Amino acid sequence: MLRMVLRAILTAGLGITLLAGSAAAENRSGSFNISPLVGGYLFEGNQNLKDRPVFGIGLGYNFDQNWGLEGTFTYTPSRLEGGGSHDQINVYTGRLDALYHFLPGAKVVPYAALGGGIISLGSDSTPDESHDDQDLIVDYGVGLKFFFHPDLALRLDVRHVLDFNVNDDHKSQELYNNLAALAGVTWQLGGHGQTSDAADADLDGVVDAVDRCPGTVAGTVVDQFGCPTDSDGDGILDAADLCPGTPDGVTVDASGCPADSDRDGVIDDRDRCPNTPAASKVDAAGCPQPEVIVVPSGDSDGDGITDDNDKCPNTPAGMPVNGYGCLRDSDRDGVFDIDDRCPDSPPRTPVGSDGCPVPQGQSLTLQIEFASGSAQVNPKSIAELDQARAFIAAHPGAKIRVEGHTDSVGSAPYNLKLSQRRAETVRTYLLRDSRLKPALITARGYGESHPIKGNNTPEGRFANRRVVITLSD
């Protein structure tokens, strides 16, 4: 019967382990512990005692979250094997054990124990004094604590008890191997753990105790004080900085890149002629280069078409013209070649101010190159971003959603945060166009949840790493 009780205690311990969750509880440093216990005590056969229930109480103290010291006192009302109903042997033990807790911050805390003490056997009803003695014991074993409350834990404990019995004549000694299995409740009083000290409400990796910016948006890169970083010190936070390595002192635009106000290819800090007309050829200092133009006889505007054949006789110098002396529009889309970034547009195709076809439909998929694990846009993808601006301009007044998607490399929570950061980066770039209204453009990350191809090939993963511009309801 007693062995069935012991098996039930062990089975219950396994069941609680499998069902244990993640409650905010732990083995606390500096706490005092009180543990009422009950279970079974199994005596070795040659000790001539029956296996019986055991009752006890443990009093302990935790020096830190791992190490503790516990004194345990137990009582077992046993009987002699083959004896009468009144042959009761009272067994008392007192031991002092060192406990080491392996996962002190978890809800389920396993531990190992090692110690020793005294066992006392006495009888009030039998003249046999062979069981009226005191022996030294050494015990070791393992246990589990299941915290269902910050101060309370269910407890299971199994010990191998070595009983060193010395005969009265001190000429012989016997060693008994006993087993004790106990279950009970541990009550923690006082102490402190690590959970509150390590709290990080905004999940930025900096604990609240030292976080100077506790409300940081999820996914934002922060410094050691929990504040958003601006690694190059240009005034643009890294999360929105398309050029994070800008040298000190360089003037930057809203995207964190060196400013080039006149778009002549020379940044403002080096441009000696900062207001150069568009499309002008400039030197390394950003100033227009003088051009030597050979004017044919009878060609007043110097476009290579003689005046008698020139239908546009006042064409500005240096502009490409057609056979009639007028500004050239090769694809007849209404944008002169000098300003046309897509000079081969199909006939009757709607184009934007840059001469490129305006994307049609309800959404536009952009294949933007991002560095691995980063939300920084590769400069090679600027053309994709400009295409998105044209798409939005073709739908004036419409609500736009910028959707970020990733492949399945990495964990799902990390990919969700990464896709949100990438969507925010693209939204920031689009809003550089003053014609776009911020209230109409939102950003949302979907992580790896909406693949358009399989993630088991490099091509599939490349297709899944995308940003989609969608007309939202």
As a whole number of angstroms, the C-alpha radius of gyration is 41 Å
The parts where pLDDT drops under 50 for at least 5 residues are 12-23
Taking the sheet with the most strands, its summary is: 8 strands, antiparallel, barrel
Q: Reading side by side through the largest sheet, how are the strands ordered? A: 1-2-3-4-5-6-7-8
The total count of helices amounts to: 4
Q: State the distance separating the first and last CA atoms.
A: 70 Å
Strand content: 25-35%
Roughly how much helix do the residues carry, as a percent range? 10-25%
Query: Rough shape?
Result: rod-shaped
Q: What structural class do the secondary elements suggest? A: alpha+beta
Order of helices and strands: HEEEEEEEEEHEHEHE
Average pLDDT score = 81
Strand runs, count: 12
